[in-house]
Design a protein that fits this description.
single chain; 11 helices; about 325 residues; eight-stranded mixed beta sheet; globular; alpha/beta; Alkaline Phosphatase, subunit A; about 40% helix; 2 domains
C-alpha cells in the first residue's frame, strides 16, 4: 500500500512538473512573441508622381522624410500601369492576377476576373480586412481625391470613407480625422499630380509646380500626425502608383512603371536607399509587418524589411 502511494505521489509530482514546465515555456513564448512595431500606419498616395518629378521639383518635405527615413526611387508598378490596378495591388498586397483588379473600370460587383481567394464580401482580402480581423477595435480610414479609389475600400470594414473633390479638401479632412480619431490605419489618396501630368505632360514645368504643391500638402498631413501625439509610433509611407509618358500612362516604359516610395518613422533607417527590388504590392505587406499581422497565403507582397532597423537587405 505504501509503495502504491509512493508511486501515486511520484506520478502526481511528475505531472505537476510537466505542467509547470509547459506553463513556463508558454510564458516565455508569449513574452518573446513579436509585437507591433507601430501602432499607426498612414499611407499618403500621390497619383502619378514620377521619380523624375520627385528629383526635379521643389520638395522640401519629402526631402526631409528621405533624409530622416528610407527611400526607393524605382519601386516597380504592376501592369497595366494604371491607377486602379496599382492602388489595388497596394491595398490587396498582391498582383492583379490574384486580386482581379486590373482596370480603372473595375467594380466590386462587376463581371471581372474572380480573385483567387475571397473575403466575406466575396472580394480579395485587403489590408483593411486583415486589421479588422486581427485587431478588431482598430480605427480604419480612407480619404480619397479620386472617387473610384473608394471602390476598393471595404465599406463595412472601414470606420471612415470620404471622397473629396479637391486635394486641398482631402488634406484638410485627413488632418481633422488624424487629430480627432488617431486612426490605426489611414490611406490618403491625392490625385492632382496625375491630373497635371495628363493636362501639361509629365515632364513639364507645370507638372513640377503641382508636385511642389503636393509636397506642401504632405507636410500638413505629417504635421497633423505630430499634433495628434502619434509621431513616435506612426509609420508614414509616401507612395505613387505610376509615372507617365508625354501626357499619358498605362504602358511599360521605365518612366511609367518605376515610381518612388518613402518610409518614415521611429525605427526606420535614416537617409537610407533601399537596394532590394520593391513592387507596389509590397506596400500592403510592409504595413502588415509593421502592425504584426498574419497575411493570407494568396498575398504575393513581401515587407520591405531592409528599411527597418535591425534588418538587412536580402541576399
Amino acid at each position: 500500500m505504501n509503495r502504491l502511494r509512493k508511486k501515486l505521489h511520484l506520478s502526481i509530482l511528475g505531472y505537476l512538473l510537466v505542467a509547470c514546465f509547459a506553463c513556463i515555456v508558454q510564458s516565455c513564448a508569449e513574452s518573446q512573441a513579436p509585437k507591433k512595431l507601430f501602432e499607426h500606419v498612414v499611407i499618403i498616395g500621390i497619383d502619378g508622381l514620377s521619380s523624375d518629378g520627385l528629383h526635379r521639383a521643389e520638395t522640401p518635405v519629402m526631402d526631409y522624410l528621405i533624409a530622416n527615413g528610407s527611400v526607393k526611387y524605382d519601386m516597380r508598378a504592376v501592369l497595366p500601369s494604371n491607377s486602379m490596378a496599382n492602388w489595388g495591388a497596394m491595398i490587396c498586397g498582391a498582383h492583379t492576377e490574384a486580386s482581379g483588379i486590373t482596370s480603372n473600370s473595375w467594380e466590386p460587383d462587376g463581371q471581372w476576373m474572380q480573385p483567387v481567394t475571397k473575403n466575406q464580401a466575396g472580394l480579395f482580402p485587403t489590408i483593411y480586412d486583415l486589421i479588422r480581423e486581427q485587431i478588431p477595435d482598430s480605427e480604419l480610414g480612407a480619404i480619397y481625391h479620386w472617387g473610384a479609389f473608394g471602390r476598393m475600400v471595404p465599406e463595412k470594414v472601414a470606420n471612415y470613407r470620404l471622397h473629396c473633390p479637391t486635394a486641398d479638401e482631402a488634406t484638410e479632412k485627413a488632418r481633422e480625422y488624424i487629430v480627432a480619431k488617431k486612426p490605426n490605419f489611414l490611406f490618403i489618396h491625392l490625385d492632382h499630380v496625375d491630373g497635371a501630368g495628363h493636362r501639361y505632360g509629365y515632364k513639364s514645368d507645370d507638372y513640377l509646380k503641382v508636385v511642389a504643391n503636393c509636397d506642401s500638402l504632405i507636410g500638413r498631413i505629417v504635421e497633423s500626425v505630430r499634433a495628434a501625439g502619434m509621431a513616435e509610433n506612426t509609420l508614414i509611407m509616401v507612395v505613387s502608383d505610376h509615372g507617365g509618358f508625354n501626357k499619358g500612362h498605362g504602358g511599360e516604359s521605365t518612366c511609367e512603371v518605376d515610381v518612388p516610395i518613402i518610409l518614415y518613422g521611429s525605427g526606420i533607417k535614416r537617409n537610407y536607399t533601399v537596394q532590394q527590388a520593391v513592387y507596389v504590392f509590397d506596400v500592403g505587406a510592409t504595413a502588415a509587418f509593421a502592425l504584426n499581422l498574419k497575411v493570407p497565403h494568396a498575398w504575393t507582397g513581401r515587407p520591405v524589411l531592409a528599411v527597418f532597423e535591425g534588418h538587412s537587405e536580402p541576399e
